[in-house]
Design brief:
Layout lengths: L1 H13 L4 E11 L28 H14 L3 E6 L8 H16 L3 E5 L5 H9 L4 E3 L6 H4 L8 H13 L3 E3 L2 E3 L5 H13 L7 E6 L16 H14 L4 E4 L8 H9 L4 E3 L3 E2 L2 E2 L3 H11 L2 E2 L4 H6 L15 H11 L2
Parallel strand pairs: 1-2, 1-9, 1-12, 2-3, 3-4, 4-5, 6-7, 7-8, 8-9
Antiparallel strand pairs: 10-11
The structure holds iron/sulfur cluster (SF4).
Keywords: 2Fe-2S, 4Fe-4S, Biotin biosynthesis, Iron, Iron-sulfur, Metal-binding, Mitochondrion, S-adenosyl-L-methionine, Transferase
Family: Belongs to the radical SAM superfamily. Biotin synthase family.
Cofactor: [2Fe-2S] cluster; [4Fe-4S] cluster
Length: about 325
């Protein structure tokens, strides 16, 4: 509780505490992925009953984005079940159109498409992409128990390519993969917090066990470990947007509130979250009104960027970024 309280104080200096960003994630290409991520319904190595599809048409994706905007989301994320972008020239062309269309709606655009090289990152930046999601998933130490088809360093290389292109980095983890929270959650956060710049976005996923995947039957991660993870991330990455992502649907409202108090300030809302269920807009709207929360309306990624350190820096509580954040929040009312 001390950790959550300290994180809550830092959170209140860097963010408007009642504001929680609404994001919607759409699967634009389902299943048939060659990777072996042992939690994933979309890997072609496991029998999960999921039917693989081709890349969605640009117009259907933009229609979904329009609906998400109307319902109150201000970030639209698009995910494709690919290992990487090699040999996907027409795919990239369509995705560029999707990004442009989402940005034209006035929404933040994020994509998650697997590993990315420098040239592809540049192309996505030119299309106006706000953020690229590429999770580290877990600690370096636990990683090889979860995925064997690409290395931790390859993941870090993608994050570097994204950062170099000037796109915001969205990278986080999945809790409940059989890791030891005391060491593996800390190691995951440490890796991200000691990159040349903090990720602007840190998604915290609670494993949704899928029948047919090796992770099915894992013991669920405990609430206290989720809250500790969020609070620790908030303390060491004070300006980052912390997203309560997959698995929120399994958390009672009281548990979600504890996460917001400890520093989480974004959720995924809509019909689906990739292949798993998601809390819907109406349900979230009602929850917001019960607790005095409001959708984050400002360009959150822009606010965050002002305070993201570009060098390793642990003096977050002593330097003047906190008071600059105070001024900024006052200016935003
Ligand atoms: S998590 Fe992504 S890369 Fe891994 S198997 Fe699923 S779709 Fe493929």
């Amino acid at each position: 509780m001390e950790l959550a309280s300290a994180a809550g104080s830092v959170h209140r200096r860097f963010h408007k505490p009642s504001a929680v960003q609404l994001c919607t994630l759409m699967n634009i290409k389902t299943g048939g992925c060659t990777e072996d991520c042992s939690y994933c319904a979309q890997s072609s190595r496991y029998s999960t009953g999921l039917k693989a599809t081709k890349l969605s048409a640009v117009e259907s994706v933009l229609e979904a984005a329009r609906i998400a905007k109307e319902k109150g989301s201000n970030r639209f994320c698009m995910g494709a079940a690919w290992r990487d972008m090699r040999g996907r020239k027409s795919g990239i062309r369509n995705i560029v159109e999707m990004i442009k269309g989402v940005r034209a709606l006035g929404m933040e655009a994020c994509v998650t498409l697997g590993m990315l090289d420098k040239e592809q990152a540049k192309q996505l930046k030119e299309a106006g992409l706000t953020a690229y999601n590429h999770n580290l998933d877990t600690s370096r130490e636990h990683y090889s128990n979860i995925i064997t088809t690409r290395s931790y360093d390859e993941r870090l290389q993608t994050l570097e390519n994204v950062r170099e292109a000037g796109i915001h980095v969205c990278s986080g983890g999945i809790l409940g993969l059989g890791e030891v929270p005391e060491t593996d959650h800390v190691a995951l956060i440490h890796t991200l917090a000691t990159l040349p710049g903090h990720p602007e976005s840190f998604p915290v996923n609670k494993l949704v066990p899928i029948k047919g995947t090796p992770m099915f039957g894992q013991e669920p991660v405990k609430l206290e470990d989720i809250v500790r993870c969020i609070a620790t991330a908030r303390l060491v990455m004070p300006a980052t947007i912390i997203r309560l992502a997959a698995g929120r649907v399994t958390m009672p409202e009281s548990e979600q509130m504890l996460c917001f108090m400890a520093g989480a300030n974004a959720i995924f809302t809509g019909e689906k979250m990739l292949t798993t269920d998601c809390n819907g807009w109406d349900e979230d709207k009602a929850m917001f009104s019960r607790w005095g929360l409001e959708p984050l309306q400002t360009d959150a990624s822009q606010v965050a960027t002002d305070f993201i350190p570009v060098h390793h820096d642990y003096s977050v509580l002593d330097d003047d970024r906190g008071s600059k954040a105070d001024e900024r929040l006052q200016a935003h009312g």
